[in-house]
Amino acid sequence: MLSVLNLDRELSKDEYKARIKPIREQLTHESLRVKQERVPVIVLFEGFGAAGKGSYISELILNWDPRGFRVFSTREPDANQARRPWLWRFWDKLPEYGRIAVFDRSWYRDVTVDRVDRGLADETIDQMYDDINIFERQLADDGYLIIKLFLCISREEQKKRFTNLRASENTAWRVTDVDLMHNRQYKRHWNAFDEMIRRTNTPYAPWHAVATTNRFYGTVTAFEIIANAMRDAVDRAIDQRTARAAQTEPPPIQINPYFPTVKLPKLRDVDLDRRIEEDKYKRDLESCRLELAQLHNRIYRAKIPVVIAYEGWDAAGKGGNIKRLVSSFDARGYSVIPIAAPIPAELNRQYLWRFWEELPRTGHIAIFDRSWYGRVMVERIEGFCTQEQWTRAYREINEFEKFLADWNTVVAKFWLHIDADEQLKRFQNRANDPEKAWKLSDEDWRNREKWPLYEEAVDDMLRYTNTEFAPWYIIESNDKKYARIRVMQIMIDTLRKALGE
Question: How far apart are CA 383 and CA 179, in angstroms?
Fold first, then answer.
């Protein structure tokens, strides 16, 4: 793509003045429509050093209300970011619906500039490109507009600009030894950028290469691309909203065919008559605690992150189960994340955003008391999301968990299963116990009335998301003590396997 770009395109000052005013007006107008129609916009500026990224961004944002955008400059990850999944620091910066995020370099830095500088393996690069395409597709499916601009200049032009910058003490600091090295390695960077465009130029997030040798031409071209893309995205959002309102047939469930699933029994076929004697429970609890404590230390030293998701029926014993499990761990090395109804900031972004926020650092454990699976259970049943959103969520969840697994994360998911009679007994016990009555709400009773719907949703969840890299475990929980030991034993086996035993 870069090879066909004419780097010598020019525009006179008079032509620039005649063309830029209506484009600026359109940029302002479309930013207001973006806010009104709640379309989130991401604008990426990539390109060669000294191609003008900072200057273009500074001029672009003058056309927008400063309360409606944020600008992010991407550098090498800091110590905290380096211990998270590599895309974590970009999920953290996603704009809310109706707002704009502008990136001076982005997630593409890792597969271009850093690739050349650090000599990353081809296998690593291949995986990162897959991650990027999935990331951008998930955002586009959620209504995000992703505008990707590559600003291009020749090696000679770059060298000239570096020389001019170094000639003044006020700008010399902007040119580093690394920049000069990049100019000497211009061809290697050109090849890396060209591959980047070729491998990630998708219908949902296309690239736009812009020659910026001539500032007037580059500004008009880049700003026109952005304004038109915003216009088209808002028009598309309006059309899609109209189409959804008229839709009568539910969309099909979406799955990723590259992630085969492992069959599990349906809930109605699970034998819940599992019990443990009190004496054996006490012995097993103590022995499990001792072994899990040792494994936790070893996981920390090996820098293996662990993600555990708890789901289950209301009153199935999630809280007590988690309490026994974490009693084995060093309090400094784990966190328990209770998941409730999303707050406004979470509702205003792609739904996985709030779970990415809580991912653990290497060597740490994150335990989710309810999780991203709410999308295909309570949100599906209660109508808190559209059919289109929950039917595609199975694929998005599998991709999310596969990303974690590729980051060497241990992913374990527990469904705590009880029958309806046991749930009723526990509800009644809570209602009659002043110290536990707070745990019972009207919502719990309403959910109980929808047991068949929830059972169907859980069976679908297990069917479509039980993978080898992120397995589900159905935990027979009519006997809470049996369930606690069962989870601890599974985690012992899982952590041993992660350590190569």
Answer: 53
Do 477 and 357 lie in a common domain?
yes
Query: In this structure, are residues 154 and 219 in contact, taking their beta carbons and an 8 Å threshold?
Result: no
Is residue 287 located within the same domain as residue 234?
Answer: no
**Which residues lie closer than 8 Å to 310 by C-beta, 6 or more apart?**
318, 321, 322, 367, 368, 369, 370, 371, 414, 416
Helices (DSSP H) in 201-256: which residue ranges?
215-246
Distance CA 489, CA 291 (A): 10
265-323 confidence digits (pLDDT tens):
999 999 999 999 999 999 999 999 999 999 999 999 999 999 999 999 999 999 999 99
Of 475, 485, 456, the closest CA to residue 418 belongs to 475
Please give the average per-residue pLDDT across 36-64, as a whole number. 97
In 349-441, where does DSSP find H-type helix?
A: 353-356, 378-382, 387-406, 420-431
pTM, two decimals, is 0.94
Which residue among 212, 246, 280 closes a domain? 246
Q: Are residues 199 and 347 in the same domain?
A: no
How many domains is the chain partitioned into structurally? Answer: 2
Query: Would you call 262 exposed, middle or buried from its count of C-beta atoms within 10 A (0-12, 13-18, 19+)?
Result: exposed
Chain segment 321-356, per-residue pLDDT in tens:
999 999 999 999 999 999 999 999 999 999 999 999
- Verify that 234 and 271 share a domain, yes or no: no
- Top-confidence residue, 436 or 393: 393
**Do both 278 and 239 map to the same domain?**
no
Q: Can you count the helices (H) and strands (E) in the chain?
A: 20, 10
- 387 contacts 68 by C-beta, under 8 angstroms: no
Q: Whole domain around residue 487: which residue ranges?
A: 267-418+451-498
313 and 409 share one domain? yes
Domain boundary among 246, 276, 292: 246
Residue-wise DSSP of 94-156 = PPPTT-EEEEES-TTTTTTHHHHHHT--HHHHHHHHHHHHHHHHHHHHTT-EEEEEEEE--HH
Tokens 């211990």, residue located: 83
With respect to residue 344, please indicate whether it lies within any of the assigned structural domains. yes
Say how many C-beta atoms besides its own lie within 10 A of residue 6's C-beta. 9
Cβ-based burial of 452 (10 A; exposed 0-12, middle 13-18, buried ≥19): exposed
CA 157 to chain centroid: 38
